[in-house]
Specification:
mainly alpha
Length: about 70
């Protein structure tokens, strides 16, 4: 499994999410409530993707340790 490739692709997605966040934050037509409502799915998605990276790394590490045993 190419963990580096997967991590790079997930980081690309996170980068796109961060662009969306900046668009929401700089949109002056939104009030605070609308901004918060639009931010929640973006921040949750980023957390999920970061957790996925951590999980994939852990599974890869455990797999390599199993093979070494």
């Amino acid at each position: 499994m190419n963990v580096k490739y997967i991590e790079d692709k997930i980081n690309e997605i996170i980068s796109e999410l961060e662009k969306e966040v900046m668009e929401v934050l700089t949109d002056e037509s939104l009030d605070k409530k609308q901004t918060n409502l639009r931010m929640k799915p973006l921040t949750s998605t980023k957390k999920i993707l970061n957790n996925a990276i951590d999980s994939i790394k852990m599974v890869d590490r455990l797999g390599r340790e199993e093979m070494e045993s």
